[in-house]
Amino acid sequence: MHSVCLALTLAMCGTGLCNLLEKQADFGLRVFSEEARSSPGKNLVLSPYGITSVLGMAQIGAYGTTLETLTSRMGYSLQKRGMPRQQRMLHRDLSSEEGVELASGVMVDRKLLLEKSFRRGLAKAFQAMPHQLDFKQSDVARRVINSWVSDHTAGTIHQFLPDGVITERTRLVLLSAMHFHGMWKKPFDLKLTQERLFHGANGTTVPVPMMTITQQFNYGEFVTADGVDYDVIEVPYEGDSLSMLLVSPFEKDMPLSALTVELTSRKVHEWRQEMRKINKQLSLPRFSIDSELDLKSVLGKLGLGDIFSQSKADFSRITTEEPLCVSKFLQRVKIEVNEEGTKGSAATAAIIYSRMAIEELTLDHPFFFLIQHKTTGAVLFVGQINQPQEH
Predict the structure, then answer these.
(1) What's the rounded Cα separation, in Å, for the pair 61 and 125?
(2) How far is 13 from 93, CA to CA, in rounded Å?
(3) Model confidence pTM above 0.85
(4) Which residues of the chain carry a pLDDT beneath 70?
(5) Which residues share a beta bridge with 372?
(6) Nearest CA to 104 among 157, 51, 62?
(7) Cα(303)–Cα(194) distance, rounded to whole angstroms?
(8) 87: phi then psi, degrees, rounded to nearest 5
(9) Measured between alpha carbons, how far apart are the two ends of the chain, in Å?
(10) Checking DSSP bridges between strand 5-10 and strand 242-249, what pairing results, if any?
(11) 3-state DSSP helix/strand/coil % of the chain, to nearest 5
(12) Is 259 in a helix, a strand, or coil?
């Protein structure tokens, strides 16, 4: 069995939503490609829709160069006329699918006064109303948020935010939650599942339960710009509006990075255009993945570092009471694929802090020091501390 790159894709696109959907998919796939590049040889799953939903809420509260950065990097702005409605329609169309549950949430410190335009934008685009919390009671606030996530992921993600993420500096938490349960259009026969060897990216082999089915699939063979041959096969879910695309290089020792580097919504569209119905026997390993990601570094590499900057971030459309910046951008995704179908859950959060709080500086690692006469500049002493000692 070839190494497998997994992409859950939507086979629906209303005319008014195509551009927004394409831009969101493109950005989410860029995040995946960058994260995959940072995690070669490791299992990885993330939710592009969850990422763009939370960043979309941040867009609504952004201003100045922060808004310009978000807009240019993501390719669209939810502050533009008509865009909140398109976002709401996309959310509605996805939520109407059998087996798909979506929710957006905004947890705000009870003492923070939000701008009316931010409240209105959240309601228009995401049908989300702010819920007040006391972030000074950080453990209570964290339990409330984790309970909200658990409720909206069918109980599959129940300890999303770890201890210490919520502090007195927290002012808002922007949330997106998703649960998906899709049954294969034609389930795999459990009796045909056999233990076979899976060839890992590092050259190792490991026995796995391999599911097998023979039927007509949409299938195509493709070549990357660098000459890497690969194939794409589509496995539909019940209802045919959702499907799984399985993408794998012909050569077992070819790294997946050779394929993910050109992963875009346009490329996915090309696959769909060129795939043809063909009888195939598909062998697919039964698998489950649980990814916990802090996407701050990856988003920084994609040009969004300013939203995390204490000096540059501008979220004054959220509130004018105090300056804010994003502290963490977290995502937890669980997915399980078996003979019956696929279960997947995703929770995404942007933790937004006040920039006015006093930052702690702890010298709990080696440092050096100088004692200087300020008037003359004479240095009286200079030293370094690698291991503090008292006498």
Answers:
(1) 12
(2) 9
(3) yes
(4) 1-17, 356-391
(5) 379
(6) 51
(7) 46
(8) -65, -40
(9) 66
(10) antiparallel
(11) 30, 35, 35
(12) helix
Q: Which amino acid is at 256?
A: L
Cα distance between residue 117 and residue 124, in whole Å: 10
C-alpha to C-alpha distance for 279 and 161, rounded to whole angstroms: 46
The answer to whether residues 349 and 175 touch, using CB atoms and an 8 Å cutoff, is: yes
Compute φ and ψ for 297, nearest 5 degrees: -65, -45
Rounded-to-integer distance, Cα 99 and Cα 335, Å: 14
Q: Count H helices and E strands in the chain, helices first.
A: 9, 14
Count of CA atoms in the C-beta half-sphere (13 A) of 379: 5
Residue 173 burial class via C-beta count within 10 angstroms: exposed 0-12, middle 13-18, buried 19 and up: buried
Q: Which residues make beta-bridge pairs with 107? A: 131, 173
Phi (first) and psi of residue 56, to 5 degrees: -65, -40
The helix (run of H) or strand (run of E) holding residue 107 is strand 100-109
The pLDDT value given to residue 13 = 46
pLDDT value of residue 372: 59
pLDDT for residue 70: 97
pLDDT of residue 374: 64
**Are the C-beta atoms of residues 50 and 348 closer than 8 Å to each other?**
yes
**Parallel, antiparallel, or unpaired for β 367-372 and 379-385?**
antiparallel
**Residue pair 328/351 in contact by the 8 Å Cβ criterion:** yes
Angle value at C-alpha 111, between 108 and 117, nearest 5 degrees: 60
Strands (E), 338-387: 341-354, 367-372, 379-385
Question: Is the CB of residue 339 less than 8 Å from the CB of residue 322?
Answer: no
Chain segment 79-127, per-residue pLDDT in tens: 999 999 999 999 998 888 889 999 999 999 999 999 999 999 999 999 9
Rounded CA-CA distance 3/283 in Å is: 12
Q: Where are the alpha helices (DSSP H) in the chain?
A: 18-38, 48-60, 64-74, 83-95, 116-126, 138-151, 257-260, 265-274, 296-299
* pLDDT at residue number 382: 62
141 contacts 135 by C-beta, under 8 angstroms: yes
